[in-house]
Amino acid sequence: QVQLVESGGGLVQAGGSLRLSCATSGGILNSMGWYRQAPGKQRELVALIHSGDSTNYADSVKGRFTISRDNAKKMVYLQMNSLKPEDTAVYSCTNYRGDWGQGTQVTVSS
């Protein structure tokens, strides 16, 4: 079974930055995505990187977040800048093959 492990979450003030990492035991040459779920809300797509390295972002994070990956290290990253309180959520990564990480908490204070 493929394992995905997120890290890099934490508490940050509004306007600050965090870099999330997703380590996987499987390959990452296919599409990889970051999702988030805030309390009382449905999980939503944050960013997606396709096999050809094209990317998609939720409108709410465009221009602030950047998804990237290192195939050799089997790592996927989410650089989050200009964070807002509404970015507070548990962030999880997926390989779109049914595997999810346990998530990492991001809390942005105002």
Written description of the protein model:
There is one protein chain. With 110 residues, the protein is mainly β. Helices cover 0% and strands 49% of the residues. It is built from no helices and ten strands. The protein has strands spanning 4-7, 10-13, 18-24, 32-37, 44-49, 55-57, 65-70, 75-80, 89-94, 104-109. The strands form two sheets. Strands 2-10-9-4-5-6 form a six-stranded mixed beta sheet, with no helix packed on it. A hairpin with a 6-residue loop joins β4 (32-37) and β5 (44-49). The radius of gyration is 13 Å and the shape is globular. The mean pLDDT is 95.
Short overview:
By secondary structure, the chain is mainly beta. It has no helices and ten strands. The strands form two sheets. A six-stranded mixed beta sheet has the order 2-10-9-4-5-6, with no helix packed on it. A four-stranded antiparallel beta sheet has the order 1-3-8-7, with no helix packed on it.
Fold blueprint:
Elements: E1 4-7, E2 10-13, E3 18-24, E4 32-37, E5 44-49, E6 55-57, E7 65-70, E8 75-80, E9 89-94, E10 104-109
Parallel strand pairs: 2-10
Antiparallel strand pairs: 1-3, 3-8, 4-5, 4-9, 5-6, 7-8, 9-10
For the residues shown, what is the average pLDDT?
95
Largest sheet: 6 strands, mixed
* Percentage beta strand: over 45%
Count of alpha and pi helical runs: 0
Rg measurement, Å: 13 Å
Share of helix among residues?
under 10%
Query: What gap, in angstroms, lies between the N and C termini?
Result: 40 Å
Unreliable residue runs: none
Query: Helix and strand succession?
Result: EEEEEEEEEE
Topology, number of strands: 10
Shape: globular
Q: Structural class given helices, strands, pairing?
A: mainly beta
Strand order of the largest sheet: 2-10-9-4-5-6
